[in-house]
Q: What sequence folds into this?
């Protein structure tokens, strides 16, 4: 069994997958789309990855505001979670993702990547940070 981590953005969806022991998260890919509202292809690709990796649960980033309120981005992420539950039949867990993109950029800066390469990978790195946070909390009994 594996868990999928997703970082939902306006034009992208970062994807990460856990190892079979549920210890580590690895970035897999970034799904790109032309329009935020055109999710059909994105959902289809997620469904393909679910089958390919034998995913049994999805962890989706919840972009809460810094003051813990639910803003427009978080409401959109909650709708995506509902769509994924309906389409896949899997449990979809929302994971606080505040500052994960900032952390992903920091990691990529430390790796010395230029802006173009960073733009290609930042979303899947953010997805792996979201998923790793969830896996660590589960291991520590905090979920």
A:
């Amino acid at each position: 069994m594996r868990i999928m981590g997703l970082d939902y953005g306006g034009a992208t969806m970062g994807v990460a997958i856990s190892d079979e022991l549920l210890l580590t998260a690895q970035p897999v890919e970034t799904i790109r789309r032309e329009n935020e509202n055109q999710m059909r292809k994105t959902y289809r690709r997620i469904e393909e990855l679910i089958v390919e990796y034998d995913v049994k649960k999805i962890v989706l980033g919840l972009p809460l505001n810094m003051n813990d309120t639910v803003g427009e981005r978080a409401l959109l992420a909650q709708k995506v979670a509902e769509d994924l539950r309906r389409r896949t039949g899997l449990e979809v867990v929302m994971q606080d993702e505040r500052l994960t993109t900032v952390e992903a950029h920091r990691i990529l800066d430390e790796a010395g990547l230029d802006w173009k390469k960073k733009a290609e990978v930042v979303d899947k790195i953010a997805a792996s940070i979201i998923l790793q946070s969830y896996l660590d909390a589960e291991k520590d009994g905090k979920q």
Observations:
- The chain has a mean pLDDT of 88.
- The CA atoms of residues 35 and 118 lie 21 Å apart.
- The beta strands are 2-8, 12-18, 25-32, 55-62, 91-96.
- Helices lie at 40-53, 72-88, 100-110, 115-139.
